[in-house]
Specification:
It is a single chain. By secondary structure, this protein is an alpha/beta fold. It has 14 helices and twelve strands. The chain is flat.
């Protein structure tokens, strides 16, 4: 499953520095707006210590982690919804992503010019929210016209869609992102079909200086209070430190550097995990002498559909799944030992795959 996240924010908030830390792609990080004119794209591996442990136990020929695709999107300014700056391009790029990583500047530095003159993370967030909501209102107006025309022909489904779409329009027009609206299952499906920008899940990354990573500062506290009730992820990262970590060649050097700062892991790891969590994703594994591999699925996926992530034939000809919970695999040390202990489960088509399951699929096509 391709997971794509877009890094957004005002100019000069640390987007490209964070992108570099995530991907080591060395995107231009310059002290002026629009340093990133085309969306830089990077593929990053998802850190998962379970994969390292399985590699240790199985000793495969190769190990394949799951990945996340990251887009570093040009900085947005007021008027983007009307095409100001690189607005049209910015908004088109956001449509492509599964989740938005919204970088908020929460640090003071006279050497880094703020596009609006001074640091105010709440204002910065509202600028981007407003532009996205204005664009969504344009989209909704077109959809409302479409549903109104359909109701004239007596289409009962169109009548329901018009009613729900009107509620969504009113919610956004009142200054609320579409993702904050409570909807029933039918309404949720309609909202998903609309492809609204403010319906996408958001992770707010408060870009702080080194002293505020652990406990935050006045900027982060004000910002966190402003987004209560949004059901969004909020994490604190010092993009500059993350860039330094990414420059180090070995894991040992990285760990030593982190320990010197009193940190247990890079902030980018927390960001990737947040992407997973907010998109309701989990990981299962396949483990054999040829390869140990991680696979991404949506939480609640049943065994045949999980098999289909590997190959469509696996889903079409699904017979059964042989499942070992990760903790049992580690406890007994090998697939053979798990089988001997009677801890391998044989599951059918209705089995809901659990995070960390080590799986082998039987199929016939």
């Amino acid at each position: 499953m391709a997971l794509k996240c877009g890094i957004v924010g005002l100019p000069n908030v640390g987007k490209s520095t964070l992108f570099n830390a995530l991907t080591s792609a060395k995107a231009l990080a310059a002290n002026y707006p629009f340093a990133t004119k085309e969306p830089n794209i990077g593929i990053i591996t998802v850190p998962d210590p379970r994969l390292d442990k399985l590699e240790e136990l199985v000793n495969p020929q190769k190990v394949l982690p799951t990945t996340v695709e990251i887009l570093d999107i040009a900085g947005l300014i007021k008027g983007a919804s009307k095409g100001e700056g690189l607005g049209n391009q910015f908004l088109a790029n956001i449509r492509e992503v599964s989740a938005i990583v919204h970088v908020i500047r929460c640090f003071e530095d006279d050497n880094i010019v703020h596009v609006d003159g001074h640091v105010d993370p709440v204002r910065d967030k509202e600028i981007i929210d407003t532009e996205l909501m204005l664009k969504d209102l344009e989209t909704l107006e077109k959809l409302l016209d479409k549903y109104k025309k359909a109701t004239k022909g007596g289409d009962k489904e169109a009548v329901r869609e018009l009613e729900m779409a009107t509620k969504i329009y009113n919610h956004v027009e009142a200054g609320n992102p579409a993702r904050t609206m409570e909807l029933d299952e039918e309404g949720t499906l309609l909202l998903e079909s609309m492809l609204l920008l403010t319906a996408k899940p958001v992770i707010y990354v408060c870009n702080v200086d080194e002293s505020a990573i652990e406990n935050g500062n006045d900027h982060t506290r004000k910002f966190e209070a402003s987004v209560q009730g949004e059901n969004a992820e909020i994490i604190r990262i010092c993009a500059g430190i993350e860039a330094e970590i990414a420059e180090l060649d070995s894991k040992e050097d990285q760990l030593e550097f982190l320990e010197s700062l009193g940190l247990s892991e890079p902030g980018v790891n927390k960001l990737i995990i947040s992407c997973y969590r907010i998109l309701n994703l989990i990981t299962y594994f396949t483990a054999g002498v040829k390869e140990v591999r991680a696979w991404t699925i949506i939480k609640g996926t049943k065994a045949p559909q999980a098999a289909g992530v590997i190959h469509t034939d696996f889903e079409k000809g699904f017979i059964r799944a042989e499942v070992i919970p990760y903790n049992d695999f580690v406890k007994y040390g090998s697939e053979a030992a798990v089988k001997e202990a009677g801890k391998m489960n044989v599951e059918g088509k209705e089995y809901v795959v659990q995070d960390g399951d080590v799986m082998h699929f039987r199929f016939n096509v």
